[in-house]
Amino acid sequence: MAEEKTQSNYGASDIVILEGLDAVRKRPGMYIGSTDKRGLHHLVWEVLDNAIDEALNGFGNEIIITLHGDGSVSVQDFGRGMPVGKHPSGKSALEVIFTVLHAGGKFGSGGYKASGGLHGVGASVVNALSDFVKVQVNDGKNSWEMDFSDGGRKVGKLKKIGTTSKTGSKVTFLPNPDIFKENRFSYSLICERAQEDAFLLKGLKIIVRDERKNKREAKYQYEDGLKAFIEEVNEDHTPLTPVISFEGESSSMKIQAAFQYCDNYQENIYSFANMVRTKDGGTHETGLKQAFTKTFNDYARRNGLLKEKDKSLEGADIREGLSAVLHITIPEALLQFEGQTKEKLGSPEAKSAVDAVISENLKYFLEENRVVADSLVRKAVRASQARAAARKAREEIRKGKGKSRAERLISGKLVHAQSKDASKKELYLVEGDSAGGSAKQGRDSKYQAILPLRGKVLNTERAALSAVEKNEELSTIIHTLGAGVGSSFSAEDSNYYKVIIMTDADDDGAHIQNLLLTFFYRFMRPLIEAGMLYIALPPLFRIAKKGEEYYLFSNEELEEKKKQLKSGYTVNRYKGLGEMNASQLWDTTMNPETRTLLRVRLEDARLAEKRVSELMGDKAEMRRNWIEENVVFTLEDDFAKEVVHA
Amino acid sequence: MPRKKKSTGSPSAKDAMFERQPEVVERPLEDILADRFSRYSKYIIQERALPDARDGLKPVQRRILWAMLEDGNTFNHPYRKSAKTVGNVIGNYHPHGDTSVYDALVRLSQDWKIRWPLIDMQGNNGSIDDDPAAAMRYTEARLSRISNFLMEDIDKKTVEWSPNFSDEKMEPTVFPARYPNLLVNGITGIAAGYATNIPPHNLNEVIDGTIYRISNPDCSLDEMMKIIKGPDFPTGGIVMGADGIRQAFTSGKGRVMVRSKTEIEDKKTIQQIVITEIPYEVVKSNLVKRMDDIRFDQKVDGILDVRDESDRNGLRIVVDIKKEANANAIRDYREDKSPYHTFDNSYLRTVRA
């Protein structure tokens, strides 16, 4: 937290107007990503970010998020309270915050020392997309209230409603149901987010209250949040070391870190800068890796675990089985992100600062725990040997030794592509033989290979590597890609640079996608990290009218097209790939010139891990809770009414 | 959750475009998983594995019965080829594999699995030894008499209807059900996150209980348990202890243990343990095999022979034991070690409870 309060007058003159607001209502997707569930919760994050920035700067250490019975949500903080004075533009500052896009206290240098919500679109975007917004501010003297409604078109007066000695702001809003089809807030999603924020900011207490039908409340507050973070991430793994956590300061940056080694082979590093997740890493993460590599090698050499002529251990081998979380708090002046999104930290100072703090603490840990340290070094040596051996084995398979076994396994199943250029080749994993046939006939044989899968593949969430290798379907996939499996998997060795899952657009297809995603996540994660895993999107509808026909991929497109065609059309709903001819399948789903693919990304490793074990693991209880929270059981189906407009 | 301001887009939110451009939409793994899982779980819970509380049927069962009624394939008409029924069900209401439909059809006719079979099947419909039924081109089927009561008055606007998969026909979402079929026939189903396992009950008891409940809506469990004493298994057997039953009736979750019905007969030179009823859902051939294994492994002294003497007169498994052996002890041991107990974790959970 800020050791000196930056400037306790976060006043009206700190708000800078950058541009107008109108476009938000027109194109909500540009501001909040989408208008589905994700976008809906984005509104909460926007408001929550503002509350957390107050806490991050040392003002107030409690935040209350309440889901109200009427569908609205409120976020209350106990910071300084939003400014209520007059803004130079003539309006009240509060009105400016909520009605002018790109207005905020974070552009100038006055209000905040460190801040995550740099983009500052926050409050006004929420207002633009809400039915109503109610803001209550306590500034230590008076209580103020201001109402906005109808997407910010109607602005109420700033009213003084009483006197108070408290400070803080409370923002309540109800998202516009016309913009958000799914307008039910998910308690569990908000809790997950609140927990992550509480992990990162020591002492911050976040309370999430659900006052809807199913009343409940969760409190998140951690003395050592990063340690708790790692403990949660590694819940399902066998630890090799306790969780080690420490913090330090270097060149006015505050660095907190925690790490633990487990007996798995993956490396999970979660990095944050000013409470913002830096998914693509950046300078601070480089600093951490550098520190681990250097410190471990120094230790190994000093203690004779590496002989003079031995090569130094590689970073990747040292980090095998490592889970680490890193949080750096950087003053605004030094904060730099690379690219348009804030997902990669660019501040050059961060690298040496993180390196310094981690090296020092890690060194102490290793020296004070010689037995554990020695075993970690030996583990890294083994990892490096295994890596070398796996690479050798893969090369042998490629050159001939062991090739025939792999070839026999995939012969008769895989339909090869002609090209030898892996970077251009695509592997289609197709559900069922009946669809496999169409895919074989419809494909571009130069670059597209087809591997039909029979029925449901094994759920690999709880499967051991040996069980996966024994499973016929999965081992065929492994050998077809030819890039190893588990820790020996290497994405650049893959025979195909695009792996495309193509299933029916029905419920079982959804399940098969999940089973395959789990397999790739657990046993070929680098493939996902490299952005090589895709899901094909076959059309859901065909609409035809006198010789014209169109394929449509969503309900929205269908509605649009219906309006355009007016009447006299027939609609088919596609449920299986087998319902399409080979040429139709090519036109709609496989032709690289026209198709739409869904690329699977790993954005938030903690959430991905949690979701996979929650939904695909063997704990029925967790799954049931998730279903009760997230699945709406309705039998909506308005398709019948619309079939024929003759 | 990353705090990202970048547009990730979603296939449903993008502008409708008719001249398609190649496009790659990025979505995070956890979102795809959650989306697919909610879809699949919703389907499997709502439309596949769990019964409706009102008629005690899973969708595939309801569709079979409805397709047969629609076809006039009732108890007072001649049998019709099973393959024809299966074809009707797949073609009109249930676009899935033929084996799963035929398996469901066969199960509805098996009187060792269903207390009151809803289907009357002509030909080999399997056996308690888990022999498969004859192929659907051989067997014939029609609705049984009791199915009539399940569907009676369905044409009198008693139930909701919904369009079938191709929107060409309408199908009932539930049957009017003149008796509580869920309790009478019981059901087992495993969905995602939820499962149900309800044992069958006695038809007369359940109907008496229902009438009593209608006249005394506030009656206690004790009163009700005087009428409905517990499960009633089509295969007989002996329920051990009533605590589990009470617990299941109170909380919806309980464990009922069932044992075989046995007698010990004294012959001239040997004794015999004669089993005439076995626990519900135990496969008889497995049971005999397991008992024979005890003999082979000589885990208990004194067993001479294990024979399955079942025939058209009924179920009969005989264990020969030495004259001087302790028949009761052998029986107890064997009951411990063979698949003798049915543990009924009755989650009384249904789609519309």
UniProtKB/TrEMBL annotation, chain A:
Its cofactor is Mg(2+). PROSITE patterns: TOPOISOMERASE_II (PS00177), TOPRIM (PS50880). Residues 425-539 form the Toprim domain. InterPro entries: DNA_gyrase_B_C, HATPase_C_sf, HATPase_dom, ParE_type2, Ribosomal_Su5_D2-typ_SF, Ribsml_uS5_D2-typ_fold_subgr, Topo_IIA, Topo_IIA-like_dom_sf. Keywords: DNA-binding, Isomerase, Magnesium, Metal-binding. Its EC number is 5.6.2.2. GO terms for cellular component: chromosome. It is an enzyme of class 5 (isomerase). GO terms for molecular function: ATP binding; DNA binding; DNA negative supercoiling activity; metal ion binding. It catalyses: ATP-dependent breakage, passage and rejoining of double-stranded DNA. GO terms for biological process: DNA topological change. It comes from the Bacteria. It holds the Pfam family HATPase_c. PANTHER family: DNA GYRASE/TOPOISOMERASE SUBUNIT B (PTHR45866), DNA TOPOISOMERASE 4 SUBUNIT B (PTHR45866:SF12). Belongs to the type II topoisomerase GyrB family. Heterotetramer composed of ParC and ParE. This is DNA topoisomerase (ATP-hydrolyzing).
